[in-house]
Amino acid sequence: MPHERNPGIPLDLSWVTEGRVNLAATKRRADQHKVRRSVKMEWQAAWLLRAVTCIDLTTLSGDDTEANVKRLCFKAKRPIRRDILETLGVADKKITTGAVCVYPNRVNEAVKHLEGTNIPVASVAAGFPAGQTMLKHRLMEIEEAVAAGAHEIDIVITRPYVLQSKWQQLYDEVKAMRQACGEAHLKTILATGELGSLDNVYRASVICMMAGADVIKTSTGKEGVNATFPVALTMLRAIREYHQRTGFKVGFKPAGGIRSAKDAVSWLAIMKEELGDDWTKPDLFRIGASSLLTDIERQLFHCATGRYAAAHQLAMS
Amino acid sequence: MSSTTVKKTTAAQPNGDVKVKVAPTSTQPPKADKIADPRAPKLPPFQFDASLKTNPDDVAPTGTKPPVSVAEVFETLAYGPAPESPAVANAWLDDHGRDFGHFVNNKWYKRDGRSKYECRCPARDEFLAHTAEGDDEDVDVAMKAAHEAHKTWSKLPGHVRARYIYSIARHVQKHIRLLAVVESLDNGKPIRETRDADMAVVARWLYHYAGWAQVLDREMPEMTSVGVVAGIVAWNFPLMLLVWKVAPALAAGNTIVMKPADYTPLSALLFAEICAEAGLPPGVFNVVTGAGATGAKVAAHPLVDKLAFTGSTGVGRILRRVTAGTGKKLSLELGGKSPVIVFDDADLDGTIEGVIDAIFFNQGQVCSAGSRLLIQEPVFDKFVAKLKERMTHLRVGDCLDKCVDIGAIVDDKQRKTIDGYVQMARDEGCDVYQACSCIPDKGCYYPPTLITNVDTSSVCVQEEIFGPVVTAQAFRTAKEAVALANNTTYGLGASVWSENLSKALELSLMIKAGTVWINAHNLFDAAAGFGGYRESGFGRDGGKEGLYEYTKPKHLKLTKRDADKIDISSFGKVTPHRPSLDDERAEVATLGPHAADVPSVDRTYKMYYGGAQKRPDAPYARPIRNAAGKVIAHVGEGNRKDVRNAVEAAHKAFPGWGKRAAHNRAQIVYYMAENLEVRRVEVATRLASTTGVSQEDALKEVDAAIDRLFYWGAYADKYGGAVQETTLYGATVKIHEPVGPLAILCPDENPLLSFVSLFAPAIVRGNTVLIVPSEKYPLSALDFYQVFDTSDLPGGVVNILTGERDHLAKYMAEHQNLEAVWYFGSVEGSKFVEYTAAENIKRTWVNYGQSRDWFDPIQGAGEEFFYQAVEVKNIWMPMGTIFAN
Q1: Which residues pair with B230 in a beta bridge?
Q2: Which family would the database say this protein is a member of (chain A) (predicted)?
């Protein structure tokens, strides 16, 4: 990791409460992001490849077993057909996904199948997705996942603390989770679709960063509304503010509903525009997704050959 | 390196951009730490085969594709060219041999021997086409075509006109990408803006006014078409501004001759072809191209009934003078220096984007550009730092590139003007900050610019720059923000940024501007009129308010005049009355109650302003004669200083009067009616004796005046505005604000009724007035001193000056602190008032020497009275907090 980890700072309540977010203005800017940056030709191919490296290739299902987790890990190691990479002249770039993301019970299998690579295993934890279990169990879950070899822990925050403005409790809890993570990186899922307002999204973002989050993440993928651009803008502005005030860089991970190659490019563009190039790399930017990779690979196939691929021509994950 | 200097490095970056050296930012440049795998076979960098593309023209707009490999971009994540194809636009230009004539009667009209204007794309410095410089004959042919077409077009049922306009809208949508590309090439603005802003607005405007054509008879039954509309529009939104005028003009039954700007005539010509394709009858819409000289010919042509202009205040002033006294209607949408007011409780990041929209949209070449940033002191430094950082992300580049924020300046002349202002700011010691992430080294570009260390007396704060240049000043309180916002000769737009709605709303009402956006800037929609206060012009584009610019009351049968023949060189000179030895005093007795040998008590009326009777500044008196020509009283001979004093009184009363509840204003006017009723017979008797009408007719006039006071009393609280049905999620509220302190000069016909008919609508709508009653028969108006005093009318709301109408008209028209002049007098006076009003672009309402029937409910109290008594302000209030569960 080229940047220093965010160690967190003491809770600064005035900062938390002074932040204001105007939804209408945020939406206008969000809409502009979708149309003001467009990449074509070589640039499009390159951007899509970069997006691949930022994907947290994810499976979070009740029926996950070693069989499909293994398949996922293999796909993470070789996300794009080799001949495509060769045609594009990037076969030497060691392109893999950013991570593989699974439930705690599947961590050891993922670790096993990623052995010998630099691909980190991320585990959701802390009562994912609702967070409505006891704190001690949630902390234990984190510790167990880390012990099983997870490099990154995607925790969910306690939404009632946000809705009831219990900022101190939220801060303390996330801080405890950061401690439980140890060397593993802490990604805090805000579940923004359940926070009620962008003001709350901003507040929760700031508190998670103050408590030591390495990455703040939009959603579990299970809420009604997931990674939207207005939410992302709000969180990115909080990250920027935090960086300007403290000097620490916190990463960002949108998750849920990101399926198209075009979306992936838009997400990279919003990162580049709002935070700069540092935040377009996997140490500070991840996209939580499962089917996105397929669409990107299909698009890259077209970039390389000028033809659209059939589904069966690409390896399923 | 100083952050205030732009330094171009000559070396092209890997992505082909040439970078402007930018000030240090919080974000770091990309680290190009290449991961080289020695085992990997050395592959040649991949190059795209153009034949694989579905559109072979889809290459970099500069024509050459910079050499770049996917591997390189994978490391840098640089932006590349994202070109829109100019192929169809080029084909269209080629179809016409790149040499255009005018468009008249649905045909190309081309004559030999015309000088030509060369249209170039300022972004690429490429030749596009030649267009013709219209001369007298060309203009005449177009005007005659429009004049002829008006005979049938204006008589079509509204529904049929609606079908035509609807058809134009549909055809515009069929050619919308071509229009966007042509516009972008001709003007140099980004294709993304012509596509998402200009053309979207064009289509919306056409649909909106197609609807107005359908419902006009029902919604505006008193009005009819004006005739031939001549439009002269600016180059900043060539087609959008043109359609802002064409759509309402067509809806109302007018025919049109448009003169697009010489820099940007192509979209107008393309639109003309599209209108013809859509089936619009010949002559209804015509285009004559050319530069300023052609514009002058268009404005001066005798067949023009209405001139609609969008452009600079300087040219607007000239057009006001050129058309003065001719009887041509005029609307002016001029310059601006619009403030962006940022409170410390605003969403600052959201506001930064608002500033980008406000000043960098369309390269800052927007009349409502938010060019003056007013930032509350506690957040000033923070906000400026955020803005500077944000500016480093702006991409300046080719107009057909979909990945740029800022395109080219329309012409090098304009670019030099902008740079001249920025240089002047440097010379004044201001801090100039310029930044962007890339800027081409070829083409006509200007980097986004922020000027700090400025204040109200800086030239760059006072004058319209019309480029991507914004100034920033600090303010302390809301009250000071209003004062600074209004400390300008302009009044077009403003935005207020705060999460406190009660604060934002109050400011919106206090700022003198035609449009105020809350937490947004530069939003436009066909359903809300756009236009200015003060030197930003008069009239509105859009909404129902915009239709008044293209309609006139049916009863008005104005004869147009050749104003050159009206001499105003000695207008308004007066020599006061001197003693003479005729037997005028003998007549005085007839009005008195005594026998003929007892003279009645001398009556010398004072003036009335600031709520009290005042002696004239210069003690001269004017004899007032009765119908038999005998002197029955004297009134003061008002002069320049009386006007000055009365304007001060009117200004003092204005804020308080406007803030009164409408109910309260209504009560006062009803009370006037009550008090007039008490003196009904007395007032009628004096009216009869002075004007010579029968007592019966005089009583009728008094009764009509009482009726009219009731009428306007009733409308004190029934014409406040409306909610406009724009595309905004939120509320767009139209407020009918008072125009301001204004001057009224009354006619001699029906001296009581015309006096009441003119002052009453003005004051119920919150204006304060200087009013000069009939010069010949002022006495019944002077009876109102007592009526006002007993009706609780606050001092200064109605200020009555007597004397020679034209002498007073001169000083009222010349007074820079009056917002409007209503003149009902001579042909000369009408010209003088319109001509003189050009100086500060005040609104005028003149009668061109023609009388009207004041008893008639439409002629004496119709829609034009409402129109004249209010200034339309549209307040945009976006809303929303619910985004998910």
Answers
A1: B257, B307
A2: Belongs to the DeoC/FbaB aldolase family. DeoC type 2 subfamily.
Whole-number Å distance between alpha carbons of B286 and B562: 24
| Whether A60 contacts A156, CB under 8 Å | no
pLDDT band at B34 (very low <50, low <70, confident <90, very high): very low
Report the candidate in B164, B289, B159, B278 with the shortest Cα–Cα distance to residue B231.
Answer: B289
**So what's the pLDDT on residue B611?**
94
Helix ranges, B122-198 (H):
136-153, 158-174, 176-187, 191-193
The CATH number of whichever domain residue B716 belongs to comes to 3.40.605.10
One domain for residues B421 and B318: no
Active site residues of B: 333
- Complex-level ipTM beyond the 0.90 threshold: yes
In the DSSP assignment, the letter for residue B374 is: E
CB atoms within 10 A of CB B655: 11
Rounded to an integer, what distance in angstroms lies between the CA atom of residue B785 and that of residue B769? 14
CA of A306: which chain B residue's CA is closest?
Answer: B52
**Euclidean distance between CA atoms B222 and B224, whole angstroms:** 7
State the Cα–Cα distance between residues B572 and B808, nearest whole angstrom: 7
Q: For residues B469 and B487, state if they share a domain.
A: yes
Contacts of B25 in chain A (CB under 8 A): 276
B442, two tokens: 């070829």
Same domain, residue pair B683 and B792: yes
Find tokens 């506001």 and name the residue. B351
Per DSSP, the three-state class of B842 is coil
Answer whether B351 sits within 8 Å of A32, measured CB to CB: no
Whether residue A235 is contained in a domain is answered as yes
Q: Which CATH number covers residue B431? A: 3.40.309.10
Q: Specify if A1 maps to a domain.
A: no
**Mean pLDDT, contiguous 10-residue spans, chain A (317 residues):** 88 94 96 91 96 98 97 98 96 97 98 97 97 97 98 98 98 98 98 96 98 98 93 98 97 96 96 96 96 97 95 93
Structure tokens at B75: 């490391």
Cα distance between residue B132 and residue A114, in whole Å? 72
- Closest Cα of chain A to B61: distance in Å? 12
Strand partners, B745: B772, B823
pLDDT tens digits along B340-367: 999 999 999 999 999 999 999 999 999 9
Centre a 10 Å sphere on the Cβ of residue B468 and count the other Cβ atoms it contains. 29
Of B30, B40, B58, the CB nearest to A92: B40
Residues B266, B285: Cα–Cα separation, whole Å: 15
Domain span at residue B763 reads: 638-874
B568 falls within a domain: no
Which residue among the candidates A75, A175, A187, A217 is catalytic per the annotation? A217
Same domain, yes or no: B745 and B788: yes
Strands B607-609 and B612-614: antiparallel
Q: Which of B246, B296, B309 is nearest to B272 (CA)?
A: B246
- Structure-token pair, residue B259: 């003169």
Distance CA B212, CA B218 (A): 10
Please report, as a single letter, which amino acid is at residue A219. Answer: S
Of A245 and B50, which is predicted with more confidence? A245
For chain A, the domain total comes to 1
Show the beta-strand stretches assigned E in B177-273: 223-225, 228-232, 255-259
The answer to whether A225 and B884 have CB atoms below 8 angstroms apart is: yes
Q: Which residues pair with residue B735 across a beta bridge?
A: B721, B873
**Sheet containing B769-772: which strands, arranged edge to edge?**
B612-614, B607-609, B798-800, B769-772, B742-745, B820-823, B843-846
Last residue of a domain, one of B487, B510, B531: B531
**A20 and B52 in contact by Cβ < 8 A?**
no
CATH code for the domain of A304:
3.20.20.70
The DSSP H or E segment spanning B846 is strand B843-846
Which of chain B's residues have a Cβ under 8 Å away from the Cβ of A86?
43
Query: Using CA atoms, how far apart are residues B533 and B546, in angstroms rounded to an integer?
Result: 15
The answer to whether A252 and A285 have CB atoms below 8 angstroms apart is: yes
